[in-house]
Design a protein that fits this description.
The protein is an alpha+beta fold. Helices cover 35% and strands 17% of the residues. A 5-stranded antiparallel sheet has the order 1-2-3-5-4.
Length: 153
């Protein structure tokens, strides 16, 4: 079973502490690490490796929902800019990475602190110092869930 499918099974079993909300085509979860405060993922319900493997109607809805999620993330976590990526090289299951960006959030990692999130070494981004703690996680989940409700209404 792929890692994303495993995390979805944890959501279904009520055992994924990062779970925010189920949408029609996917699940919204807070990222395990918060180097970029508000880092969120949107996991496709369907196990596909590429967007073009989805039925057209599902794919269009998945893209639409991702857009709603990224707007809610931007507002909830006061992003100046959003970075959105669907990679799948490590975990071959369609899922979006949604990174709220702010001025100076990459000092020391790029030209004047600007650049793609992946310029930050993975070991640093996922370091224990950036692991979200339970109380903070609960607050993030509630804030994002409330904002998503506004966008889905």
């Amino acid at each position: 079973m792929c890692l994303i499918c495993q995390r979805i099974e944890w959501i279904k079993a009520g055992e994924n502490p990062y779970f925010v909300k189920e949408l029609e085509t996917g699940y919204v979860v807070i990222g395990d690490h918060q180097y970029f405060k508000g880092y969120t993922l949107f996991l496709a319900k369907e196990h596909v490796t590429e967007l073009h493997h989805m039925e057209t109607s599902v794919k269009l809805r998945f893209l639409e929902e991702m857009s709603l999620v990224q707007e809610a993330v931007a507002k909830t976590f006061k992003a100046e800019k959003m970075n959105i990526e669907l990679l799948g090289n490590g975990d071959a299951h369609a899922h979006w990475h949604l990174f709220p960006r702010r001025s100076g959030d990459m000092k020391g990692h790029g030209l004047n602190g600007r650049g793609p999130v992946w310029w930050v070494p993975w070991e640093e981004m996922a370091a224990e110092a950036y692991q979200v703690k339970s109380r903070e996680l609960e607050q993030m989940i509630k804030a994002l869930s409330d904002e998503l409700e506004k966008h889905l209404a």
